[in-house]
Amino acid sequence: MSNTTKRVLMVITSHDQLGNTGEKTGFWVEEFAAPYYAFIDAGVTVTLASPKGGQAPIDPKSELADFQTPATKRFDNDAKAQALVANTQLLAQMNEADFDGVFYPGGHGPLWDLTDNADSIALLEGFLAAKKPIAAVCHATAAFLNIKTPSGEFVVKDKAVTGFTNSEEDAVQLTDIVPFLLEDELIKRGGDYQKVADWHAFAVQDGLMISGQNPASSELVADKLLGAL
């Protein structure tokens, strides 16, 4: 089957407050832009959804000059993609049956609103039950923490998985601000947590579950998801 008939749902955070710091957070623009363009350039139809619908918040730090890539620059000049981000669908209304796979971009926002989100959990469990791939990068692997198998085990248990590392969190000086450390929580649930050196690209696939370590890994995750489709 050609990619032209494939549909991917991208689930983006609606959370824009960085704990009690008074600073803003949201999704990391590169982690959305690089996969988004990988998908549409491959002929995949992309739908964006978020817990609150409407405008998904971009982490202002991700728009700083240091973090710009060809994909973010393309996004900055892409009115259509910007309109999609400004008008995301409501996550609660999304149905696994309408898509071939799902991708969660990171940024710190998902730690707050996609970890325990009942709609997200049900959606991900639905994708897995339908034997469809699920993918996340960086902090968005938090969305995988509380999904369970039909027998009630954590999906990540005994599975190769990655996500933003404790040392990377320490490097951005947010260890005491985030609600939890992703690496610790994945390990607590029995995940076979894997990582490489800080800020290096790394993605791992175990069955239907694909995860990436950090912003540098977003395109690798997208490529693995395209392969799984």
Considering the chains and any ligands shown, give keywords for the structure.
two-stranded parallel sheet; 30% helix; 229 residues; alpha/beta; seven-stranded mixed sheet; 14% strand
Task: Characterise the protein shown here.
- The chain is α/β, with parallel strands linked by helices and 229 residues long.
- The chain is built from 8 helices and 9 strands.
- The strands form 2 sheets. A 7-stranded mixed sheet has the order 3-2-1-4-5-9-8, sandwiched between helices.
- Strand 8 and strand 9 (209-212) form a beta hairpin.
- Helix 1 (29-41) crosses helix 2 and helix 1 (29-41) packs parallel to helix 8 (218-228).
Span between termini: 9 Å
Q: If strands are numbered along the chain, what order do they take across the biggest sheet?
A: 3-2-1-4-5-9-8
Largest sheet: 7 strands, mixed
Average pLDDT rating: 97
Structural class: alpha/beta
- Mass-distribution shape: globular
What integer value in Å does the Rg equal? 16 Å
Question: How many helical stretches?
Answer: 8
Helical content, roughly? 25-40%
Instruction: Compute the number of strand runs.
Output: 9
* Estimated share of beta-strand residues: 5-15%
- What's the SSE pattern? EHEHHEEHHEEHHEEEH
Residue stretches low in confidence (pLDDT < 50, at least 5 long) are none
Summary of the model, kept short:
This protein is an alpha/beta fold and 229 residues long.
Topology, please?
Elements: E1 7-11, H1 29-41, E2 45-50, H2 70-76, H3 79-86, E3 89-90, E4 101-104, H4 109-113, H5 118-129, E5 134-137, E6 160-161, H6 166-171, H7 182-188, E7 192-193, E8 203-206, E9 209-212, H8 218-228
Parallel strand pairs: 1-2, 1-4, 2-3, 4-5, 5-9, 6-7
Antiparallel strand pairs: 8-9
Helix pairs in contact: 1-2, 1-8
